[in-house]
């Protein structure tokens, strides 16, 4: 089916807006392709340094300058569950390369931090900035110019967007992203959330809370809720950078290993030396970006991608806006209910039909562009399959025609909602985004006085003091990227959830952020302009009445707007938040970072 007009209109607007910058980008990567891999022009000393630690057989191939060499950029560490499986991947990839007469080298590693570990802690202030550090580390890894293609081992929050930005700086190289998969299902996410709320109410102790958390996060692989990490995997597949059906296969399984080997072979088949040259800079175009945004809306994915997708697009010379995302959200139906947008986890989603079913439903109904380039060498219809082992060999079979569980994964004809899970909010306070797929309709409209806090701890203290007994909208400001690095504020979710369960109308407004794990309380996040820039959020006072209408897409101060804007902006001494846990090293990032609606990036537009 031809793509729907609403989808095509957004695609055309992005293409028109990006015409000059996209041309410049494509010209740059074509020059890089023409220059080629420089092993042939490296001095003997350069080349000797480049293969000094290789096995003798690999040295011979690299010295001969005919064998292909595959770069591996890895986010492996063994502290974080999602990244621990990557420990063995380089050896698997090297063996797969040797089997076809090629070589592979670990080009470099990138940092990988976990928001789950740093949640509510000083280290969280580094989290968003780590994306751009990862992009730079990727560039350092590939800057040796020893590689004909690259594979990228990354899965979680800022890691995949950072790897993407770095890979697009080397857009002349083929790039395949290799997932590690989710951990097996543990304690159900709704039960974990219930225990958290009981702990906040003082009804269970730390031992019970830790036991519940450990039963939920219990082994290798990504967390199983649908947060930024699993939204990343959905995006890489629907944008054609994963092998089909590979996103949600559990780690440590024969199928996972078979997919990793095939990813290495596939990357080496796409080089400029062959007949199927497919660099990442050609794959990521306006159609691929729109496909990614459609997938995000159709699955109720992470709000972090309202920044990450803009930054990724910028790296490819494409200019994407929140208005583009909002227009698509109004057009795309919600087809998945995965926690916090339901009770199921990503393993249940995968078992119900997963990405193959989702992509086929969206393609058949005209919501996705079929005519895109992918690492699989097909249009997007090549992704309407599921990966299996048949007689110990990797096979790709058509995805099921019917969902295995329509309460988790629905066809377009029985969508959970006619619109997507992310919305743009605009009004006299600025612009922000909200995830409403997990917010019940009766909680999507809140009109109440505000309570203003300059930290999430301030709200926690007010809650513990018993001060929050009537309807209110919490304003958490001075949490933006320029202020302190834009930490996530999930520490507040149980507190606000308790108050909502008590019958209060509550909501949150912040220039900080929440991820795809945000839950049942309406939260207007990524507020732009942020408080440190003197945005209207800096002029709110306790008792001001604000209306948040998620359905209408508005966030409005109710009162004398001229009087509000004439107020002196509030200020806050943020110096204590700029030191400790490495935060002093990121002063330059806080000065350089752009606004949330421009990707919250420290890089200039490509």
- What overall form do the CA principal axes indicate? globular
Helix content: 25-40%
Query: How confident is the prediction overall: mean pLDDT?
Result: 93
Within the largest sheet, what's the order of strands? 7-8-12-11-10-9-13-14
Strand content: 5-15%
In terms of per-residue confidence, which ranges show pLDDT below 50 for 5 or more consecutive residues? none
Total of helices: 23
Radius of gyration: 24 Å
- First CA to last CA: what distance? 33 Å
Helix and strand composition category: alpha/beta
The main sheet comes to:
8 strands, mixed
The number of distinct β-strands equals 14
Structural account:
With 606 residues, this protein is an alpha/beta fold. Helix content is 38%, strand content 13%. It contains 23 helices and 14 strands. It has helices at residues 5-17, 19-35, 44-51, 56-64, 89-99, 115-118, 127-142, 159-169, 189-200, 206-216, 228-238, 254-268, 280-283, 286-299, 305-315, 322-331, 346-351, 354-364, 456-464, 481-484, 493-501, 561-566, 587-592, and strands at residues 69-74, 103-109, 149-153, 175-178, 385-390, 393-398, 422-427, 430-435, 445-453, 472-476, 506-510, 523-528, 545-549, 554-558. It has an eight-stranded mixed beta sheet with strand order 7-8-12-11-10-9-13-14. Strands 2-1-3-4 form a four-stranded parallel beta sheet, with helices on both faces. The chain has a two-stranded antiparallel ribbon with strand order 5-6. Helix 1 (5-17) packs antiparallel against helix 16 (322-331). The longest helix has 17 residues, at 19-35. It is globular, with a radius of gyration of 24 Å. The chain starts with a helix and ends in a 14-residue tail after the last helix.
């Amino acid at each position: 089916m031809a793509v729907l007009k609403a989808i095509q209109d957004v695609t055309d607007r992005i293409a028109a807006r990006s015409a000059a910058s996209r041309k410049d980008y494509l010209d740059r990567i074509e020059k890089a392709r023409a220059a080629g891999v420089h092993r042939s022009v490296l001095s003997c000393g350069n080349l000797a340094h480049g293969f000094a630690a290789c096995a003798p057989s690999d040295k011979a191939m690299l010295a001969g300058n005919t064998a292909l060499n595959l770069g591996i950029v890895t986010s492996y560490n063994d502290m974080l569950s999602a990244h621990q499986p990557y420990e063995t991947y380089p050896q698997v990839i090297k063996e797969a390369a040797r089997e076809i007469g090629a070589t592979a080298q670990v080009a470099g590693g990138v940092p990988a931090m976990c928001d789950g570990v740093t949640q509510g802690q000083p280290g969280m202030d580094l989290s968003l900035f780590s994306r751009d550090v990862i992009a730079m580390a990727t560039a350092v890894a590939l800057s040796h110019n020893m590689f004909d293609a690259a594979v990228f081992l990354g899965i979680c929050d800022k890691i995949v967007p950072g790897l993407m930005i770095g890979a697009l700086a080397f857009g002349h190289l083929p790039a395949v992203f290799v997932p590690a998969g989710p951990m097996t299902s543990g304690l159900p996410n709704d039960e974990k959330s219930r225990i958290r709320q009981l702990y906040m109410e003082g009804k269970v102790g730390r031992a019970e809370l830790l036991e519940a958390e450990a039963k939920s996060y219990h082994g290798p692989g990504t967390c199983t809720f649908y947060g930024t990490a699993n939204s990343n995997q959905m995006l890489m597949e629907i944008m054609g950078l994963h092998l089909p059906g590979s996103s949600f296969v559990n780690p440590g399984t024969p199928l996972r290993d078979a997919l990793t080997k095939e990813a290495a072979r596939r990357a080496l088949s796409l080089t400029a030396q062959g007949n199927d040259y497919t660099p990442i800079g050609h794959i990521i175009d306006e159609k691929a970006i729109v496909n990614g945004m459609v997938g995000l809306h159709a699955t109720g994915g992470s709000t972090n991608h309202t920044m990450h997708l803009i930054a990724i697009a910028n790296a490819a010379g494409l200019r994407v806006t929140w208005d583009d995302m909002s227009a698509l959200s109004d057009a795309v139906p919600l087809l998945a209910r995965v926690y916090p947008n339901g009770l199921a986890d990503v393993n249940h989603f995968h078992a119900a039909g997963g990405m193959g079913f989702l992509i086929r439903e969206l393609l058949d109904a005209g919501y996705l562009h079929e005519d895109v380039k992918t690492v699989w060498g097909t249009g997007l219809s090549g992704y309407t399959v599921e990966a299996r082992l048949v007689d110990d060999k990797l096979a790709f079979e058509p995805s099921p025609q019917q969902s295995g569980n329509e309460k988790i994964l629905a066809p377009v004809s029985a969508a959970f909602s006619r619109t997507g899970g992310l919305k743009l909010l605009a009004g006299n306070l600025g612009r922000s985004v909200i995830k409403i797929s997990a917010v019940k309709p009766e909680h999507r409209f809140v009109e109440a006085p505000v309570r203003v806090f300059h930290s999430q701890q301030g709200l926690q203290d007010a809650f513990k003091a018993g001060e929050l007994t009537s309807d209110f909208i919490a304003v958490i400001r001075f949490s933006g990227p320029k202020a302190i690095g834009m930490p996530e504020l999930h520490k507040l979710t149980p507190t606000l959830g308790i108050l909502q369960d008590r019958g209060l109308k509550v909501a949150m407004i912040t220039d900080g952020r929440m991820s795809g794990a945000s839950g049942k309380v309406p939260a207007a996040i990524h507020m732009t302009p942020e408080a440190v820039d003197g945005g209207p959020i800096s002029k709110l006072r306790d008792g001001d009445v604000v209306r948040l209408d998620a359905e209408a897409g508005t966030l409005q101060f109710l009162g004398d707007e001229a009087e509000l804007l004439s107020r002196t902006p509030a200020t806050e001494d943020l110096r204590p938040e700029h030191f400790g846990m490495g935060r002093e090293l990121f002063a330059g990032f806080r000065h350089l970072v752009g606004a949330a609606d421009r990707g919250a990036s420290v890089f200039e537009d490509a």
